[in-house]
Amino acid sequence: MSMNRREWLGMTAGGILGLGSFGSAEGRVEGPKSRLTITELTITPIALPDPPLLNVAGCHGPYFLRNIVELKTDAGIIGLGEAPGGQSVTAGLEKARRIVVGQNAMAYRRFAHDLQSLGMGIYAGIEVACLDAAARASGRRLCEMVGGPVRESVEFAAYLFYRYAADHPVILSDPHLADARGSGEKALDDWGEVRTPEAMAGEAARFRDRWGFRVFKLKGGVLSPEAERDTLFAMADRLGSKAKLRIDPNGRWKTSTAIRIGKEIAKLPMEYYEDPVRGQEAMAEVREATGLKMSTNMCVTRFEHLAGALRLHPIDVLLVDHHYFGGFAGCQALGPVARAARWTLSQHSNNHTGISMAAMIHLAASIPELTCASDTHYPWLAEGFDVIEGNPLTIRDGSMAVPTGPGLGVTLDRDRLARAHEVYNKTSMRRRDDATLMKRLEPGWTGGLL
What tens digit of pLDDT does each residue of 13-53 get? Predict the structure, then answer.
């Protein structure tokens, strides 16, 4: 079929997918009817079982909270997103409805500033839902909508935590508990207690044998620095010289401690040393004294932190996270910055469902500079509790393939989502609070610098 210039311009102005609603949220100028106009925004807060993992803030549990975002367009297409949990985030997402309904999902940058003013996690959850809807409308994968992929398989690191057994009596007596988990066969998982170097070496080996990981990150800042140093040596002995090691004390160590331990672990196959201390100046001092590559998701987490980092040289690896670094758009913008600064990129993780897992894969596939294995909590998600249809996304040889379906490539399981929302309604948890449970497990715990 031929068309004249006027007809062709008319079609492209509206977009083959109907991308044509122009102007700001307040002063919108309507274009042709859009197949991507946002008509509904549904927010579902959920609570999913969390094992008693230990970190600098205390102990996880018994649930982690997330907000599932569903963005419906006038063509009936639903885009999925996932935002951090907690009552305040849920409230912010509800406020976002007045900003996004009536807007075009493909033009999400038009209302980005208004969403970011509510919170970066709120923006990220809706941005991913917009991208998912737009990609589904075009029949393409999400990574193809943002300029990728530059790789079809994304490597991830084993994220190793010291922990208590899932059926520890204090865990099972937690007042927030709202399900039927118990001891023995009714326990949430069978990982047991891991609070010694030898036990952690066993946990690492199990991650390697089950999922094929070749990079291993120890979440530190839990035991004494000396015990965590010994843990790294035990892991190296168990895993062999080809395994790459990382440790993340989450800024709990004093500068003198970080330098002393850093010099001792430098003989191991350390890929990088993540946030042993707090602040760019202290990080730069440890980097200079130890010669180890340094990484962060603490001292460079916003664009305004870049000037200091370029001046002080505290890191070699930057961990991005679309939930707090400006979504896909912000994380992709960091690529050229990292290249100019001679940094490499990786990804930070928090507890998440398969929706964020898929988003992380698509993001890593679309950033050339993201060459370090990304973190993920996904292996810690209890079996059968993901909110996506079918089996969990597959980790094979430590890597995950870019999902092949349109958009994120995942679909909500309505029954699982309803169950997770029901648990949210039953539990009294409305924000993360690792310290309270930790004080019940270890009276006198303070979490001070070591």
Answer: 333 333 333 233 433 434 445 579 999 999 999 999 999 99
Q: What is the pTM of this model?
A: 0.92
Delimit the domains of the chain by residue range. Answer: 153-407
Mean pLDDT (the chain) is 93
Question: Helix or strand or coil: residue 228?
Answer: helix
CB 102 within 8 A of CB 110: no
Tokens 């505290």 appear where? 314
Q: Who contacts 410 (Cβ-Cβ below 8 Å, separation ≥6)? A: 80, 354, 355, 358, 388, 389, 393, 403
Residue 199: enclosing H or E segment and its boundaries?
helix 197-211
Full 3-state SS string of 106-158: HHHHHHHHHHHCCCHHHHHHHHHHHHHHHHHHHCCEHHHHCCCCCCCEEEECE
* Active site amino acids: 219, 348
pLDDT the model gives residue 7: 39
- CATH top-level class for 153-407? alpha beta
Q: How far, CA to CA in Å, does 317 sit from each of 278, 287, 320, 334?
A: 16, 12, 10, 12
